Amino acid sequence: MQMTTTPNSALVTDSVTMLGADARGRAAIAASHGGIYAAYVAAKAGLKAVVLSDAGVGRERAGISGLAYLATMGVPAAAIGHRSARIGDGVDCAKRGIITYVNDPAAAVGIRAGMHASVALDLLAASDIPAAPMPAPQEETRRHVSDAEAGGIAVLALDSASLVKPEDAGAIVLTGSHGALLGGRPETAIKIAVFAAVYNDADRGIDDCGIARLPALDARKIAGATVSAWSARIGDGLSIYQDGIVTAVNETAARHGGEIGIPAAELVARLVAARRKESP
What we know:
This protein is an alpha/beta fold and 280 residues long. The chain has nine helices and twelve strands.
């Protein structure tokens, strides 16, 4: 399920990238990671409050960094424990999620760590909170990793998998997104037929959901891998490339030289070599 509306008009969605114009002024559980990019998208949509996933917290507490970002705008925000409910699955987060982190505006309306996510959402929906102000534009989130490109093979660092474009078909993409399927749907693994996609494992989480995209990518003959949330900042594609250490690879990636434990930059070099061999 992509998005549902609760009886109190709150929203439940698998990703902040699915929010539409009707989100303005409403509270939502959005099962995205709690990093700054996701928080920015939530604020841009005009939510008055949001509950995200803590994504395992990870390097530099990137998985919950969006809570402090939203606090600067007075927007209540909380995070669900990644071992209580599946990241990327809004319905599961509403059903099983337990709050692990809250920002000050959320605490001011009664949200507490240990609270059930659905209870927190009800409180936020009932609170008299204004819609989020329009946030300042974020820096460019699509970057060509120029020192890793060779022979015309595009290597891109994207802060979100939602930023992949049709012209990226055949490219190697490193995304700051988590490696979970949205709502468990295989088609959400990646929307474009890239050559390879690398994600953050969000500390894997309950049901090992943080690497669930990899088998779905295999079915499409796309190389897939994840890096540790503790090695690279979730929501930061460049950190995935520069800092990431590989924690899981699918069969397609393994055939192209992918290995657990190598730096993401080394994985990219091997994928570039494999892609070059396949080029006419």
